[in-house]
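Q: Structure for this?
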Amino acid sequence: MSQDASLSQHSTSAPSAPQAPKSIAELKQIAAQVRRDIVRMVHAVNSGHPGGSLGCTDLLVALYFRIMKHDPSFQMDGKGEDLFFLSNGHISPVLYSVLARAGYFPVSELSTFRKLNSRLQGHPATHEHLPGIRIASGSLGQGLSVATGTAQAKKLNGDDRRVYVLMGDGELEEGQVWEAAMYAPHHKVDNLIAIVDRNGQQIDGSTDEIGGLGNLRAKFEAFGWRVLEADGNQFETLLPALEEANSLCGQGVPVMLLMDTQMGYGVDFMMGSHKWHGVAPNDEQLEKALQQLMVETYGDY
Amino acid sequence: MKDFPYTESKDTRSGFGVGLHELGKTNPNVVALTADLTGSLKMDAFKKDFPERFFQVGIAEANMMGLAAGMTIGGKIPFTGTFANFSTGRVYDQIRQSIAYSGKNVKICASHAGVTLGEDGATHQILEDVGMMKMLPHMCVINPCDFNQTKAATIAIADYEGPVYLRFGRPVVPNFTPADQKFEIGKAVMLNEGADVSIFATGHLVWKAILAGHILAEKGIDVEIINIHTIKPLDAQAILTSARKTRCVVTAEEHQMNGGLGDSVAQLLAREEPLPLEMVAVNDSFGESGTPDQLMEKYGLMENDIVKAVEKVLARKAK
């Protein structure tokens, strides 16, 4: 497959300027390439979390290639930019792939994922100064607090851009999430869009079986959030939901998008179960997965 | 033995409050957060004069630490304020991941440390906080001794880039250090030069060390007293220079023996200059309810305890 310079960076090239928003057809191609990256990354080190990464691929592609105003030349303070935080840090493969494909660092660096001396740690970290990462995450439940703090700092700075944060649905079992969920509406943090990856799965089984999350819309509405729901694996429904979330900012309330996804989306044998939460495909499974993720334009790292 | 005159006694937490208010005036990036303890942390003046930079988080310390980490993104310098117990043990993982490992410029300001919190009892009297915080890579740990020094430390840490744990307390103690002092992070302060024994003290135990110094002087013992206000990074040079001169050491702190200043000094001496060492600290015990003075006495943190430790270490000192 050929390399597309507008999407992937060669190791010697400088970071690109922000790219023009992509069409849905282009987004689908990018998402397929990102999914190829994900399964190849976890296969290469026989570790990592493909299930949630595949399920959230469409969201991250939509945010970084269509929705957010952001600059791959990367300044930690992100002034004048929309910022994204990944609270469920174990789905780092999708974040790394999307950041690389958006020009934050060379695509070739994806081959270092989870290896010694890499900037691509098992869970995202700032410690190795990987462009695009603003906080360490992985110990669950902390990202909503961090994103809320950054959103408040933006308000203090007179910065009118937004802050997005993604959490897993199983992650909502952490108490800190509800501390932050109570705080953000009380403090009218209305430049904050929180997204829950509602795939219904966690390590030990389904969220219904393990955590009993119940009616999340009712819970977050009771806490004072504007709540939206959308299919997170269809750009045709996801993009309007994200645009609506943006349009609801600035009205004195934070916005919560409950995003229904399928863990493992795009690879048929990884879908519909928690089995692929944290398991890498073997050689044969990788080949089978890649056959389902054909891309015309872009190229593997 | 020098005299250390003072005109008034004050609580160190009030030094923090005054320092924070000063910072509000001089540094527009300083923001303050509290978890429902504005008055206890003496943050009222900051809240009154800089309401847009003051964040009442409610009884949600984990959220407070995450918010503070997030506020650094955009250039703010957050000062969090709650009791030492809720500033450390309750939120250790939030500090570890979102602040320390992430290298965020958060100032964790912790009052009511140690047994001098008093009547509330052991649930609130943390004696492990210094140990937990100093174990975190690159965390700076500061425990000033009086009002003036706490104020100066509060102002100084705003100019230091990186996470800081600032520990202070509730009781009223002699305010004897200079009002105009410049606080240098990581630089020990020589209080009294002496030849027979080195006393390295931190926090409230610095004044107890001075009282012990006077008692010992009457017994003809010439003590060197050094205020170790910064436990990490430790001023190894000052400690080793003094220890090599006096050839025996006593440490004094309102903290567990495990993980405190004495533990840091012991490691340093074991590596560089093995010498007799006695530690005045709480020995593997929780506190309990009582007045601060009663508790300091029961848990062996008074001037007489330092005197006994000095006599013991002098007996062990090579002749």
